[in-house]
Predict the 3D structure of the following.
Amino acid sequence: MTRTTLLPAMQNAATSDTIAQALSLAIHEHRITPGTKLGEDELAEIYGVSRTVVRASLQSLSHLKLVDIRRNKGARVASPSLTEAHEVFEARELLEPRTARSAAKLATPSDIALLERHINEEHAALDTADPGRALYLSGLFHTEIARIANQGTIAGFIETLVARSSLIIALYWRRESALCEKHAHHALVRALADHDEEQAEALMRSHLVDLHSALDLRERNSRAPSLKEALSQ
Amino acid sequence: MTRTTLLPAMQNAATSDTIAQALSLAIHEHRITPGTKLGEDELAEIYGVSRTVVRASLQSLSHLKLVDIRRNKGARVASPSLTEAHEVFEARELLEPRTARSAAKLATPSDIALLERHINEEHAALDTADPGRALYLSGLFHTEIARIANQGTIAGFIETLVARSSLIIALYWRRESALCEKHAHHALVRALADHDEEQAEALMRSHLVDLHSALDLRERNSRAPSLKEALSQ
DNA sequence: GAACACATAATTGTATACAATACAAGAAGA
DNA sequence: TCTTCTTGTATTGTATACAATTATGTGTTC
């Protein structure tokens, strides 16, 4: 983890919030990956603050389950287990379709325009070979829909679930199914624009199921690759 | 807020977690009410630690929306707005019925026994005129069901929603509808014991709707009682 | 060469000191 | 009397210092 990996352009006034946001963005964009050690001194130097402030950010991120803090062992970027991964997507499948339905009822033309801008940015990021940013924007699309639905509490839940999904994708994504969404978001926006609640809910549900099944969440010999296999390569 | 209000029996080793838990319990049991100032020095003295540790607990509680921290203004017990109150219960109505269904599928005899113990304790607390404790146990009943459903992520959401409900009840409960649940929890346990998923889901939904409507969530002249009225008493 | 013990370094946990901000009371002026 | 300014006090924000714990590396023994 280098200075340039984490520092966007923040020469002045780093508060605990801005640091948490910067780290969160770096995690979203896969610039730092699950398991990465987040040393307090290191971060303190990078952002030009004392450990006090850094600790506050790390604690904040640990409440979002983006960072795993263990007593006397420090903080690392979280590595969701298979169980957690399933749970996160099941939670999303429970929350987001209904939320998309509400969003379809409430979406204004300016909401639609914003979502379309997001999609365009996402495609642009893909074209410029910046998959991390594309992934971040793809998540933003989901949190934005939650915001449109005007249910702040649920939107907050979805936001954390989307963030955790980013970790899960980093760990369990299988490249084979690279055909991914591409049109799913477009279709969703269309349903929202048409105030077609039924369709919005259905599209969101199937979109999430697609995502879920595009992950390699089979049971695996986790943490003990039998040693023989691992060394026989 | 006195020593005895917050200190259960903790003469040694108060960590940030134990303090957060103690405060959370006090909030649950309505021993400290929305709006109460939580001064850092005060808490530090009460629990015999430095402000560093206290700050960590308060930040933790603020992530759960039990405490409201404002920069340079300190921490107070949160006072959910009417909007927030509605949102919390709508979120519960979305999450908990489905969770109760899962719990009905998975509940073991020992789970049922535990739930029945909770109900008995709750009644005992009511008999000994300890409504705060009864309220806490009533919330515990809901989080316990979420735990049985074996969906840790959703259970975590429900836990925070239940906690926030405690604040909402402190602010908006109307005594008139004191007939409250009493049997609702019993009926739910029965449905869980019978593995009657349909029934469990339906009962949980109607139970939550009852709770929601037992609140006085009408629009009110919030935060500006016109000054004349306030002073004419 | 492997396993252990010990010393040393690095890192985190907690307390304290200082700086910055907000709040309250009182003084000066209109 | 009311307004406004000033000053003092209390409280929070941040940095630093020290304590406790963990990680590392070296030598020793088998």
Notes: Chain B has two domains: 13-77, 82-213.
